[in-house]
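Dissemination and training. As part of the outreach component of the grant, students in the summer workshop were shown how a complex can be specified as a set of sequence lines and then modelled as a single object. The example used during the hands-on session is reproduced here so that future cohorts can follow it. Participants entered these lines:
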Amino acid sequence: MRQGFEDLDIKTTFRLLLATICAAGFPVSTVAEGLGGLSQAVDTPRSASRSPEDLAITLDYREDYRALSFGFQPNTRLEIGISFPTYSEGSNSSSGNELSFGLKLLDEATYLPSLTVGIVGFGSDDRGAGEYVAFGKTFGSVSATAGLGWGRYAEVFSTGRGDDEGVIETDHLFAGDTEPFANLVWDTGIDGLTAAVEYSGIAGEKDDDTYALGLSYEVSDGLFVSALGNNQDSYGIRLTFAANPTRPYVQTDIGRGPHPFVENRTARPNEPGPQQVLQVAQERLEKEGISIRRFAMGADTIDVTPSSATDLNFARVTGRVARVLSAVAPARISTFRITQNTGAFDSNVIVLNRTGLGKAVSQPNAGALAWDSTSFEVSPLQRQAALVEVPFEPRLTYGITPSFRADFVTSDNLELTGTAVANARYTFSAQTFVSGAVGYRFLNQWSQEDPPETPEIRSDLTSYTPDEIYLQSLSVRHRFRVSPEIYGRVSAGLFERAFGGVSGELLWRSPVQDFALGLEVSNVQKRAYEEWFGFEDLNATTIIGSVYANVGRNGDFIIVDTGQYLAGDLGVDLTVGRNYANGWRIAASTGWSERSDSALKFGAELSIPLGWTSPEGGKQRIDLSVGGPSGDLGSRVNGTGLLYNELRQSDRKRIEDAWGQFWN
Amino acid sequence: MGAVLELMKRFSIVAAALALSGCVATIGQVAQTILNPVEDAGMSIPNVNRAAIEEADLAAVLILSPETGIASVAVAVQKRESLLLYSSNENRGVTMNGGLIYATLGFGTNLQAVLTQAGDPLVNDTPAADWPPQVARIYQLAGRGPSFDTIETTCENRVGATSDIDVVGVTRPVVEVVELCQTADGAAFNNVHYLDQDTGRVWRTSQWTGPKQKNVQVDIIDQFDPNS
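and obtained this result:
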């Protein structure tokens, strides 16, 4: 079946094989069930039962129903879910893209139950949308939930409960017929085995009420397999990966410890000169995996640009550099200036007051005291002369990356593609490189379509040649600084499988602000379906402004993109997420277009640092995305190299979030 | 890993037994369970050249972390008010506040600081008979942001038997004290101390240092002498 953009915007992509993720072995969280991404027994809701920061990815598979769900609990009261269900009805199927919320209004008390209110499929009354009120109580190893449901929790085929035609429909909420439900979830005490039984008043083909049973087993840390069945002859399996970014599976600090901090003392005769300071600092920092890229020493300051191949926590790197400098710097040095470099840019100067650090070390709340002795400055375009500066050496890097995409929603048989992408990059300077990627689809279960008569923006994805080596991308990119706080980029070439052209971007960011502003202008041509370098007769110009903001105190961020997108439509994209000090990143996105009367899509992204599972640390990570842009509307060109993606690790909030590791 | 799990299992079993009985006779079992991790955890204990340490007049400690299987010898490198910083060649170390493990580096999830009440018998050498019935301490661990996360604990103590123990090659006459501790959210752990029978000074101690790193054992090879 050919996908039009109306249904492509709900296509689910799953960029990394779930099994690969699960095999990596992640820590136990809670048994996190969840159709719609919210806590659930078999098919009925549970009282919100997760811990803050818990997240779960769930794949449900039954004869008449499939769903991929993403659930996250940002705090003690709120659960958020995004899911991509497909319902089979005879020879027909329908798909959805649901955003769901569960809010625990009352905590469980000694005699009183908890109270949770949930909305599944927020903003629409499509099939799958439903609301519930659930009361929960725990009795030893058994948690019991009972409540009342509307929509999907009251009928098998619930749809069209309201008249609202707005972008966000609300008049159907908690309206229409209701049915009761109840469930028990029992931790059996047998290692990793949990059982669930439930009742709901939904009538099915076999009975007027539905009774269901589920058994869940944790086969390895964080990976749960469940078998489900009910008296309506519906059976299925559920695969859940559960984790909590704040609870790493490994001890985090078992490597070499940091150098002891030495309080400054009065100047002595024969204080070391710059060369001696540099030499000792290099020797000591190398033992901790930190190299000095640039070193300058002035009358009362030392300016160091450090680099670590293994530690992605720059606050910790900064602390370790400061500890070493405290031991080797002459007494007259009062300030350590640690410059953060992203590769292309010097993004921040973290200014440390030596006396303040000396008063903070080993004290209670030493992290907060050190933060009080720290300020941020923009790196000047012209820096003081360096005693040593490691010159950039042009280099060629290359590799092969497998990637997997699966259509869990719109296909009836979980069509899967596997692609091997060989990529190479030649870097001329720290600011300029040319890169290319060649792909080959070694596994292709997608239905191949002939190219359309008129090229389309994205909905002709399956028209691209699948079974021969193709040129994924070939482009050149140059980054530069216009002023200390304005960063620039120009890119040209074949950016992605579907588009090539030219692109330019300006980004304003300040090290002392928690937001940045970007503007990208691109002019692109649709690439040929078969030839490597050909183009189709479709040209597009995008002009997209972006606001990147760090908000709150939990690593939360908001990104708003707005402007003219590839289809010439005016649109808005909204991304919200949370960054963790240990490198985890969770984000969800949606968008609107002037040509659509509903939200375009929901997507979720997850980035897991491998250091979370390995005591050796490292900067590698696993990236996983679900949903996201796939339709013609509200879509922008990929692969141009947005500057903020390079600079976001330098955000003051990122450093502040990680500052607890300063003394580690 | 299996050895660590086995150790944890034994720890849990004995802790449960303690909770049920609360009798002094069990204290010795707890101490032995906590204080003999070496064989089970498969740790490689560094050879300690006591003679060289004493010859150099260095204050030194042997640190054992059963959770991570790391053992290290560290010498005192800094004194900051009442805190004594011990550091090893790999910069692993502990900061001691008297006999209280105040901070750790390189043995798991670093302990940043321990705040304790005035008159904590671990901080001020106190003969076992004079220990107060209860001590409150606050543990600080790195969390999100500059401010450390805190875990509030309360410990009650039981005084055990006197005995002679070998502390890195030297026999010390000690009295055993076990602290039965609980965190504000209900988690339980035990500390075990061997105090000099006369002065109450700590010669060997196994103390909880956080929910993930758990107990770390410190043997005092050579005490710090402020007058030397």
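The radius of gyration of chain B is 16 Å. Students were then asked to discuss how this feature might be tested experimentally.
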